[in-house]
C-alpha cells in the first residue's frame, strides 16, 4: 500500500498554537500549484511498481485551493501513477471555506473524505486559538457536509486553559450529534516560536496543565468507546471501516511520498524531507531539482520508529517481529526496558504483542522513548 501526501503551505491566518509550515500570503498560490504538479511528475519513477491507495491534501489549509486546483493535482497523480480503483482521497478543510456551494462542488470531485478542523464548538476557545471560523460556521458546515459526504473526520483540541470537564464533554457530545464516523483529538501543546507561547509568557493566558489534559483524554476515550468508536491510534477514533487509511499506512510503516515544501517521504529504508521554505522550494522545482534531504535509517532508527508507532496504535509492538527483523539482542533489550512498565500496569503483553494499558495510553510517548535504543 502506498500513499501520496500533498502539503498545501497556505493559511488565511495563523492559529496561535500552530508551528506547521505555511504562509498567510496567497500571492504565489498559482505558482505553487504548478510546482506541486511538477514535483508529482518528477518523482513518478519512485512509485513505478506501486499502486497508489491514498491521496491526502494536508497543510496549511488545503481548502484555500479552488476546486479546479484540487482537481488538477488529483488528475496529475492519475496521469503519472497507477491508482487503485477506489482510493481514499482526503481533503483537510476549515469550516469557513466550506460554503454550501463549495461542499456541493467537492462532492462532485474525486475527494471522498473530508477532515474538518473544528477544534472547538465554543466561541471563546476559537478566539483564543485565533481560528478563522466561528462556532455557527462549524455547526453549519457539518450539517451540510454530512448530507454529501459519508466519510468525514473532525478535529477537536483538549486540555485548553480554563476548559472544565463539563465543557469538554459538551464539545464531544456536540461532535457526536452530527453522526461523523471518525474523530481526531489532540492535546493542546505549546510550541516555541508560536503566538500562544508568547501569550503564556506575558501572562495573557495560563499554560495548559498536564493533569487537565489527562482527565480530558480519559473522558474522550470512555465517551467515544461507549458510542462504538475504536481507539485505533493515540489521537484517532474511528467506527468500523472508517479508520484513516492514509494515516494507518504511516503507523504501519508503509511507503508514502510527500509532495510540497516541508513534506516528508518514506520508502521503508530511508526518509526524506523537502525544504520548509516556499521561495526556495519554488526555485528548486522550476530549476528541475528536488529540494530535499535524504537520511538512510539505521537498524536502531527503524527499531525506534516501530516502537513509537506500534505503541500508539491498536496493533501494538509484535515481539515476534522484533526478534525476526532486529534479532534476539533487540528483543532482550526491549523486555528489560519494558519490565518496569509491566510492573506498574502501564503496558501488557497479549498474544506476544506489547500494548499500553488504559492507564498507560496517555503516557505512550514517554513510555516509547524509554524503550528506544540510543545510537
| Oligomer category | single chain
Element pattern in H and E: EHEHEHEHHEHEHHEEHEEEHEHEHHEEHH
Q: Write out the strand line-up for the largest beta sheet, numbering strands in chain order.
A: 7-8-6-5-4-3-2-1-9
- Which class best fits the helix and strand makeup? alpha/beta
Task: Describe the global form.
Answer: globular
| Number of E-state strands | 15
**Biggest beta sheet summary:** 9 strands, mixed
Tally the helices.
15
What's the helical proportion of residues?
40-55%
Question: What descriptive keywords fit this protein?
Answer:
single chain, 375 residues, alpha/beta, nine-stranded mixed β-sheet
Protein described:
The protein is α/β, with parallel strands linked by helices. It is 42% helix and 22% strand. The strands form three sheets. It has a nine-stranded mixed β-sheet, with helices on both faces. Helix 1 (29-42) crosses helix 10 (278-286).
Amino acid at each position: 500500500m502506498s500513499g501520496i501526501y500533498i502539503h498545501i503551505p497556505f493559511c488565511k491566518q495563523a492559529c496561535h498554537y500552530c508551528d506547521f509550515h505555511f504562509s498567510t500570503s496567497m500571492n504565489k498560490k498559482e505558482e505553487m500549484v504548478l510546482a506541486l504538479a511538477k514535483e508529482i511528475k518528477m518523482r513518478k519513477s519512485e512509485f513505478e511498481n506501486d499502486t497508489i491507495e491514498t491521496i491526502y491534501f494536508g497543510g496549511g489549509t488545503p481548502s484555500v485551493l479552488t476546486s479546479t486546483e484540487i482537481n488538477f493535482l488529483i488528475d496529475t497523480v492519475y496521469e503519472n501513477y497507477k491508482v487503485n480503483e477506489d482510493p481514499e482521497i482526503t481533503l483537510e478543510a476549515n469550516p469557513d471555506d466550506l460554503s454550501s456551494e463549495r461542499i456541493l462542488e467537492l462532492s462532485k470531485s474525486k475527494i471522498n473524505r473530508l477532515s474538518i478542523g473544528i477544534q472547538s464548538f465554543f466561541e471563546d476557545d476559537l478566539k483564543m486559538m485565533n481560528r478563522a471560523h466561528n462556532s455557527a460556521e462549524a455547526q453549519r458546515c457539518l450539517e451540510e457536509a454530512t448530507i454529501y459526504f459519508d466519510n468525514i473526520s473532525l478535529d477537536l483540541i483538549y486540555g485548553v486553559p480554563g476548559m472544565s470537564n463539563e465543557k469538554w464533554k459538551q464539545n464531544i457530545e456536540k461532535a457526536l450529534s452530527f453522526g461523523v464516523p471518525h474523530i481526531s483529538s489532540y492535546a493542546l501543546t505549546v510550541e516555541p516560536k508560536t503566538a500562544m507561547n508568547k501569550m503564556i509568557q506575558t501572562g495573557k493566558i495560563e499554560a495548559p496543565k498536564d493533569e487537565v489534559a489527562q482527565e480530558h483524554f480519559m473522558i474522550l476515550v470512555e465517551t467515544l468507546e461507549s458510542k462504538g468508536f475504536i481507539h485505533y491510534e493515540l489521537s484517532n477514533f474511528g467506527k468500523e471501516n472508517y479508520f484513516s487509511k492514509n494515516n494507518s499506512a504511516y503507523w504501519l510503516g508503509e511507503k508514502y511520498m510527500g509532495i510540497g515544501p516541508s513534506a516528508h517521504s518514506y520508502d521503508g529504508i530511508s526518509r526524506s524531507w523537502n525544504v520548509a521554505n516556499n521561495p526556495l522550494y519554488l526555485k528548486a522545482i522550476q530549476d528541475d531539482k528536488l529540494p530535499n534531504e535524504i537520511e538512510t535509517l539505521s537498524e536502531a532508527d527503524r527499531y525506534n520508529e516501530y516502537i513509537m508507532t506500534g505503541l500508539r496504535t491498536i496493533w501494538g509492538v509484535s515481539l515476534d517481529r522484533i526478534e525476526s527483523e532486529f534479532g534476539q539482542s533487540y528483543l532482550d533489550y526491549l523486555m528489560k526496558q519494558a519490565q518496569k512498565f509491566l510492573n506498574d500496569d502501564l503496558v501488557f503483553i497479549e498474544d506476544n504483542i506489547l500494548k499500553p494499558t488504559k492507564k498507560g495510553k496517555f503516557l505512550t510517548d514517554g513510555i516509547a522513548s524509554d524503550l528506544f535504543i540510543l545510537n
